[in-house]
Amino acid sequence: MDEEIIYFENYDYASALIGVSHDGRAVYDYDLMVEFLMKKEKFSYEEATDWIDYNTLRALPYFGEKAPIVVYSAI
Fold first, then answer.
1. What is the 3-state secondary structure (H, E, C) of the chain?
2. Residue ranges per domain, the chain?
C-alpha cells in the first residue's frame, strides 16, 4: 500500500483510531470520538454527538474514496 492514509486532522481523534481497513482507510470508533470531545472540550454527551454528526460525519464525502470510516458499537 503506497497511498497515504487520510486521518481526521481538525481534532486529534487518535484515541478513537481503532485500525486501518484492508483498503487503507483509517477506522475510528464513534463512541471513542464522543468520549474524546467530552474530555477535551468538556462537551455534554449531546453536544459531542451533535458536533461529530454535523462537523465530522457530514464532511466524509468530501474526503473522497479514501475517507476515514467511522464505526458504531453494536451494544
1. CCCCCCCCCCCCHHHHEEEECCCCCEEEEHHHHHHHHHHHCCCCHHHHHHHHHHHHHHHHHHHHHHCCEEECCCC
2. 13-71
